[in-house]
Amino acid sequence: MIDYKLLEALATVIECNGFERAGEALGLSQSAVSQRLKTLEVRLGQPVLIRHPHLEPTPAGRRLLNHYQQVQLLERDLRSALPTLETASPRLRIAINADSLATWWADAVGRFCRDEGLLLDLVIEDQDVGLRRLRDGEVAACLCASDQPIAGARCVPLGTMVYHPYATPAYIARYFPQGPSEAAFRHAPAIVYGPHDQLQHRFLAQCGYHGAFPYHLCPSSEGFVRLAAAGIGYGMMPHRQVADLVKAGQLASLDPQRRLEVPLYWHFWRHSGALLERLTGMLGEVQLT
Amino acid sequence: MIDYKLLEALATVIECNGFERAGEALGLSQSAVSQRLKTLEVRLGQPVLIRHPHLEPTPAGRRLLNHYQQVQLLERDLRSALPTLETASPRLRIAINADSLATWWADAVGRFCRDEGLLLDLVIEDQDVGLRRLRDGEVAACLCASDQPIAGARCVPLGTMVYHPYATPAYIARYFPQGPSEAAFRHAPAIVYGPHDQLQHRFLAQCGYHGAFPYHLCPSSEGFVRLAAAGIGYGMMPHRQVADLVKAGQLASLDPQRRLEVPLYWHFWRHSGALLERLTGMLGEVQLT
């Protein structure tokens, strides 16, 4: 049987990003934490932690952490069957797309987290990286736009987020005085979330435009909205995120006929325990728009 | 003299995240873009691009890209002296802390970007990584909480952001019925931005609490606010970001006497040209709170 005290030390050092704080969290001295990791590495015959330039697990350490997380989830089920066992909140590591986190996610899971005493460890990833991290066992679930299944995991459709091309009215008057056109797209600065973001390209392709266009890069949902609201560019935003700004007249669609729908899927490991099953059941009833 | 067509091909492939889209952007075939990169690698005697699992520059490629960016900035100055030269918008790559991007940044730089035709390439990094990327020449400037100078770069203080410990009134009534206390901190789930985020620890230390506490991890400014507003946890948020929610009674400080001040600094390469100097002058006049 694995000595879970050693895995707990590894998990806590990563979570706390340091030996001293991990010691505080565990009620141990810093050197006792070090000693546990050393013991773990000796037993394993290889390092579990990279110290420089940042504390991070080695691939072997990552596998151990994932195992530790799965055991914690199973223990949680056990505890609800045997409530006299000492309790501690489980932490669920989930890869999630930025726009969900900036819009419907918190309202959807709020009551669930409170009722279950669940702590979230959220990781923002684009879908390819998120699914890879699920496959590698680094996260317990992944919320993304891909329905590509992962062996051993389930994939549940959650619904669709709706995006519109928003900008300030002043921006639209300046760059799109006659509405969308090839000439306008060529010169109007757009805002793109990152190099993997395809929404802007999909929108332009839908409009029949396939040429180059100037754009800002802004890998933050909230920053994206702020740049648009400051008149710096136009971009594809979830209606839900900017409904108040649209209502107040600060943002408007530059092409009210156009909308892009992005389906979202919830991927999670089968046999990860009842908590994830319940969370999945709850997410299946959420309205995304 | 370097053949800048080759560097442009490299920069465009990275920006567009693909050879086909880079070709479209440059008005070239995909194979012409490939050929330019091959030529560059032959001249350099080493690869500039990693193809798998994601397109990204090698360390050598990164140096070339940084050089290319600096040349573009210098060209921009030249163009304003010689306005008959063909013009194209420069793109400025800046590392920035997430909370600035979620609050004051866009309003501060909006007019400047419009007037100068400047495109932003924003990268969200915590301060240590941001400063390292500046030192490595991957970004032209870094906005962060560290005043640690980088050789060859200037460091300008921009002012202070003010953080308070906010939660919903219902959350405060449930977890802090008698106000902040050791027992309350031990059980109340907090929200922490990421493992490098020290605000929560600083707040607790200020309150005289040094023990363990349960927390959610949420590496998104907007997601952070949404989790708090959904009653999932409490956390340190910039007053400016949540002023509307506080006014509407949806969030309140659980300890109105406490505030944390975070100074912000703007680091940028000397001799990067007049555009960065003007941006710096403009940022020096911004009100952060």
Automatic annotation (TrEMBL), chains A, B:
Residue intervals of the HTH lysR-type domain: 2-58
Annotated Gene3D superfamilies: 3.40.190.290, Winged helix-like DNA-binding domain superfamily/Winged helix DNA-binding domain
SUPFAM superfamilies linked to this entry: Periplasmic binding protein-like II, Winged helix' DNA-binding domain
Listed PROSITE patterns: HTH_LYSR
Keyword Transcription regulation: yes
Molecular function, one GO term: DNA binding
InterPro entries assigned to the protein according to its UniProt record, in alphabetical order: ArgP (IPR017685), LTTR (IPR050176), LysR_HTH_N (IPR000847), LysR_subst-bd (IPR005119), WH-like_DNA-bd_sf (IPR036388), WH_DNA-bd_sf (IPR036390)
Keywords from the named record: DNA-binding, Transcription, Transcription regulation
Similarity-based family: Belongs to the LysR transcriptional regulatory family.
Matches recorded under NCBIfam families: argP, PRK03635.1, PRK13348.1
UniProt xrefs under PANTHER family: HTH-TYPE TRANSCRIPTIONAL REGULATOR ARGP, TRANSCRIPTIONAL REGULATOR
The protein's name in its UniProt record: LysR family transcriptional regulator (Chromosome initiation inhibitor)
Organism: Halomonas organivorans
